[in-house]
Batch of 2 targets.
Target 1
Amino acid sequence: MVVQRDFSGEDKQRDGLEYLKKYTAAHAERFGVPPLCMVHSFGCQQNVSDGERLLGALAEAGFEPTDDYKIAQLLIFNTCAVRENAEDKVRGVVGDLKKFKEQHPDVILGICGCMAQEKKSAERLLSTYGQIDLIFGTFANGELYAMLAELLKNRGRILNIEEKPTDPDAPFTQLRKSSYSAFLPIMYGCNNFCTYCIVPYVRGRERSRSPESVEAEVRQLVADGYKEIMLLGQNVNSYSYGFPELLRRLNGIEGDFRIRFMSSHPKDASRELIDTIIGCEKVCKHLHLALQSGSDRILKAMNRRYTHEDFWKIVEYARSKRPDFSFSTDIIVGFPGETYEEFCETKEFVKKVKFDNIYSFVYSPRSGTKAAELDDPVSEKQKGLWLRELLLENREVASEWMKRFVGRTCRVLVDGAGKEQETLTGHNDENIIVNFSGDESLIGKFCDVRITDSMNWAVKGELVL
Ligand code: SAM
Ligand code: SF4
Ligand code: F3S
């Protein structure tokens, strides 16, 4: 039986939480350990952050997190729908769990996130995979307690994917994986409706958190020892209370930490934003600005609302103030109807801008979006070859541009062990990967590294003691 009840309302969450606390306490008493839960997030940082909130909520109810699905009583897969291959991954994982679920019928298997929010995908998941107990969309994350309590009491299956108003300032707890780098959403949803993109359909309209609540969270994170705060939004430039103001406000918080953010939409990237980045010492000198295409005809068909010349003006302004200003970008190759000549316009423009990092994707049709209805005569294979051409042809420009760091000393936040023995890897203020020799005790700390060599998308250096 599939339950499609309304699980919203504070009282339902309160009752649900009380029930779950009793359930986890009884489990702990009987087995000597609390029940374990696993939340696995696919997709972007926003989704990872949502996953951390779900884990936080579960921990509050008495569950203990694990990364090993084989020992968990509750499995939640927090999905992404941005491209077909992201959805394929989820179907693969859920398919693989069929046997496991048959052997462990008491384990609860839940699917949430963007793919779950998309009605057709959710219904298909539910009808194809009998092993799924619970499907809830991005608007129902705050209803987790009520849904789980219902499942534990009455079993059955739950589908909860209605779009509904949510309060961006609603309180939450979050269990972050990293103890030094934190994702912090400042807004949710998107109003832009780029014609290829599913995000506005699965995340709803833009909702901004108040600057007070963002500031309070940053202060707490800094007090807890966090060194890097990554502000998140699909387009932070349309933050309702003014994004440059927010950056200046957060820059004023005392402590040894740095501020990153993503993403910025080029149509709203202002001179004020560039001036603020350059003027605030805690804000990283890097802008992720998704170009998508260098062809004005394709940009128009994508509903991006800027031309390549508008984009260039932002780059020119930033580099007039700081010649080595770092940009990274997203590129879609093979938008419906794109010709080879139009693709070449992208290729040439990418070389002109000199990006430090390019995230490039072959266009993937998303049902329900406008672009999915357009004629698309170029084959997937051909698009794959264009993508390779873009990256290969840009390689020389990128590695030449990376050389600007050689001889400089950069402040690096150490992310973890490098590939070779006794090496470390981290990111500098420009978001460039820096590899160097050092002790693992430096992980999660800032250190100064003198850059000695550069590669295509990373640099090597020596620790300055
Ligand atoms: N809001 C961000 C922005 O506009 O910069 C982008 C967020 S989206 C999750 C990340 C990237 O996925 C996009 O910039 C775009 O390059 C890519 N993307 C989105 N829809 C796609 C599709 N249908 N096919 C291929 N790539 C897509
Ligand atoms: Fe998608 Fe465009 Fe919104 Fe980014 S700005 S999430 S690409 S619709
Ligand atoms: Fe992110 Fe994927 Fe959703 S990129 S917003 S998790 S569709």
Target 2
Amino acid sequence: MNVKVAEHAGFCFGVRRAVDKVYELIESQEKPIYTLGPIIHNESVVGDLEAKGVKVIENIEQLHSVRDGVVVIRSHGVGRAVYELMESLGLSYVDVTCPNVLKIHKIVERESKAGKNIVIIGNAKHPEVEGICGWSVSKPVVIETVEEAEEYQAMNGNPVCIVSQTTFNYNKFKDLVEILEKKRYDNNVLNTICNATDDRQRETKQIAKEVDTMLVIGGKHSSNTQKLYEISICECGNTYYIQSPVDLDSEMFQSSSCVGITAGASTPNKIIEEVQKHVRIKF
Ligand code: SF4
């Protein structure tokens, strides 16, 4: 069986870097290891880390009860106040905030200090956006919907700096910016959307066009995997959404000579490799 595995399948570089760092710390650290929130939305990875002694801190308040140990700041990043709190508590930390997110922190800090109003296009409840807000010296505004964009008014009529959550949908970002542009403020628009999601979707579409069977691997509740499945099935009717090699069935490969494999952002490499091996050996 000819098997094509998407280069951008599974973890993006920011998530891979964060997860690898935690495993590295397990090997090198004597002290207890904590992650500020789950390092990734994947139960098997978080479960494995827990079994190796890594504890998840669910909220900032819990930092007060950490006495000794190393706290890992995950790829989503955190606001300035969280760094200050950890420093005041004397906690050691390892920062694996994705460089793409750090770049937004720097923009927001610089531009807000320069007196600009900060607008973040994204979901206000997402930890990444909460972290970005925490770098603005003035009160930032988060906009996610057309209504919110229409209602927006820049404070004091000052210039506006617009950034985006890294995983926001580009077309939606464009539409919201268009509404804001009509208000004729002095806008500085910075598209800070990360291209990892886009690359993965584009590659999935391309591979699905070239193969007889397409396997999309990811957690049942993963919305980005669901999206990959939808993209794939439009190009290859023989597309299957699986979670692990256990879901493979010989019927999926009847009269197939070429199989494509892609995976959502929270699918560990190990599972992608197991599926690939299984397809090559068994079918
Ligand atoms: Fe991954 Fe992009 Fe988010 Fe970084 S910014 S963690 S590369 S999706």
